[in-house]
């Protein structure tokens, strides 16, 4: 699904609507509708198609070589295609979006911003899997994901706390349908829960997270499952949905718990157990923690998850303000006054982060076209 990044006009329309439900049976129809909404109707953000200066794309995987946001050239397109085996469903959809934008907008610059970039400098001890070293030489390593938002939250946490982000030790909990936790020190990721693919780590909506690899060989031998069937099982039929048998949506899980549903309670308990364990592990890697950040759909909107995840962390100096936790405004500190570890709720702003990278990249390449008074008009696609 595509999302629009809205930038201000010199003359605002009488009414501005930031979100609009659109219909479409294909990705191309959805993107065409998105683009039309940028210059037509209540969601108008630019005057015409010609006002779009750049299009930014969230790309899930940059592989071992694409380490920075980059303008999409034929060579970069081929490089992204070359790592599609790492995340085939995501990357094929993202490249299709690039091709559709080119078809509609022609030679308007397009920029790829990678979910893996923020984790690119993790130390080797956190990157290399303890299998044969040949794996690493073939590009099989821990990449980490959700990096766009982890990086945004790093900067935003520094702003909220009035400190240089490079001075902070942060544990960032990106909890949505996909979930990951990172340890951030000196302004960069030094460890994270996701690995070679976005399947690793925490329990998620439909994804299992980390499981004993022996289970997979057991299923192959005993149940005759092949690679595609195991991939389907772990990616689409596990996590909250697989354990509860009800839903991948945390709101549904919590509603079922209130009705006494035992498997929903079990799903919640596993989910929280893994979050707590990961927070503790990241704090150990950091050698302490200044702030824990909750972000993304569940992290921002579920006081139950935040409360349960923080419970038991009092030994580390974390004290939650339970009143503030119930009804926080986003981008707020919800720790108790006497807590030595701050607890922040930060709105995920991946579209803003991508638009910022688009502006920086196009500004550096075309300074004569930039104006201090007028930011570039960007359309952002975030999968």
Number of β-strand runs? 10
The helical percent reads 40-55%
Number of helices: 15
**Major sheet size, sense and barrel closure:** 6 strands, mixed
Find the structural class using helix and strand composition.
alpha/beta
**In the CATH classification, which architecture of the largest domain applies?**
2-Layer Sandwich
Q: Uncertain spans, ≥5 residues at pLDDT below 50?
A: 1-17, 367-375
Encode the helix/strand succession as letters: HEEHHEHHHEEEHHHHHEHHHEEHE
The radius of gyration computed from the alpha-carbon positions, rounded to a whole number of angstroms, is 21 Å
Tags for this entry?
2 domains, six-stranded mixed β-sheet, four-stranded mixed β-sheet, 15 helices
Give an account of the 3D structure.
A hairpin with an 8-residue loop joins strand 8 (332-333) and strand 9. This protein has 15 helices and ten strands. It folds into two domains: 27-114 and 351-381, Nucleotidyltransferase, domain 5 (2-Layer Sandwich); 143-346, Nucleotidyltransferase, domain 5 (2-Layer Sandwich). The chain starts with 26 loop residues before the first helix and ends with a strand. Helices cover 42% and strands 13% of the residues. The protein has a six-stranded mixed β-sheet, sandwiched between helices. It is an alpha/beta fold and 383 residues long.
Can you lay out the helices and strands and say which pair or pack?
Blueprint (H helix, E strand, L loop, with lengths): L26 H13 L14 E6 L10 E2 L2 H9 L5 H18 L4 E5 L9 H4 L5 H5 L9 H15 L7 E7 L3 E7 L2 E5 L20 H10 L4 H10 L2 H6 L5 H9 L3 H25 L4 E5 H6 L1 H8 L11 H5 L5 E2 L8 E5 L3 H16 L12 E4 L2
Parallel strand pairs: 1-3, 1-10, 4-7, 7-9
Antiparallel strand pairs: 2-3, 4-5, 5-6, 8-9
Helix pairs in contact: 1-3, 10-11, 11-13
